[in-house]
C-alpha cells in the first residue's frame, strides 16, 4: 500500500512538471494513444459513438487516466482536445492534462479511457479556461446508454456526452474534485508557435504536424 501512495505522489509531481520536461516523442506517443482509444471505442457497437453524434459534435476531448489510492486517491492523466471548425474540418489537437483527488476509504488501481463529445459552442469555450470540470461547468451525460437516451429526446439538453472504458479494480471514494487543464506551453512547443489554444483550435494559422494528422483524419472519416 505504501508503494501505491508513493506512486501516487510521483505521478502528481510528474504532472506538475508539465511542459518543463517536454519531449516531443512523449507527445507523439500521446497522440497515438488517443487515436488508439478512439479506434477501440468505435470498434465495439455497444460503446461506439454514433456517427450522427459526431456529425453534430462541436468538439472532442480524449483522456487517458490512471487511478490509484489507499486513503488518498489520485487520478492522473493526459489527453488531447479538438474542435470542429466552421468549415466542418477538425482542428489541430491540443494537449491537456486531467487530474482528480478523492478522500475516503478506497483501495486499488484502474485505468480509465474517456471520450467527451462536446455538443455545443459553450462547452468548446471551456477549453480556453485554465481549468474546468465537465459536469460542473457543462451539463454532462455519462455512459453510452444514458447518452443514447439523451440523444433520442427532442430537447437534447446535454452539452457533453461521455463515453468511458474502465479497466481494473477500484473500490470506494467519497469526496472528489477533478479538473482538466490545457497544456498550453507543451502545445506551443509541439507546433513551434507562439499562438495560444483559441488560435490553434479555431484558426488555420498553424499547419498540422505530420504526427497529428492521423488523428485528425480519423475523426474526419467518422464524421463526414
Summarize the structure.
The protein is of the alpha+beta class and about 220 residues long. The chain is built from eight helices and seven strands, in the order αααββββαβαββααα.
Q: Helical percent range?
A: 25-40%
Radius of gyration: 17 Å
Seen as an oligomer or otherwise, the chain set is: single chain
Q: Helix count, per DSSP?
A: 8
- Name the overall outline: globular
Which structural class do the helices and strands define?
Answer: alpha+beta
pLDDT < 50 stretches: 1-20, 69-74, 101-109, 167-177
How are the SSEs ordered, and which strands pair?
Blueprint: H1 2-17, H2 24-43, H3 51-56, E1 59-69, E2 72-83, E3 94-103, E4 106-118, H4 121-125, E5 140-142, H5 144-152, E6 160-172, E7 175-182, H6 184-191, H7 197-202, H8 213-222
Question: What do you see in this structure?
Answer:
The protein has 224 residues and is α+β, with helices and mostly antiparallel strands. The protein has one domain. It has eight helices and seven strands, in the order H-H-H-E-E-E-E-H-E-H-E-E-H-H-H. The chain has helices at 2-17, 24-43, 51-56, 121-125, 144-152, 184-191, 197-202, 213-222, and strands at 59-69, 72-83, 94-103, 106-118, 140-142, 160-172, 175-182. It has a seven-stranded mixed sheet. A hairpin with a 2-residue loop joins strand 1 (59-69) and strand 2 (72-83). The N and C termini lie far apart (48 Å).
Quickly list its features.
224 residues, alpha+beta, 36% helix, 7 strands, 7-stranded mixed sheet, disordered N terminus, 8 helices
